[in-house]
């Protein structure tokens, strides 16, 4: 009886550990996604700046 309980307890602990690991991995993935999104946003901003600069140059040429 005691042996069986120990085994069950061990199984339960292992399962919990597995779940914790999975959760951590998911969190890491989320972090990665956020970082990527931030990088993308930065890139977009740069593009906008370039466009503005181009526009300014064109306007100056027209003058």
From TrEMBL:
Bias (Acidic residues) ranges: 15-31
Annotated region described as Disordered, given as residue ranges: 1-63
Biased composition (Basic residues): 1-12, 34-55
Name of this protein: Uncharacterized protein
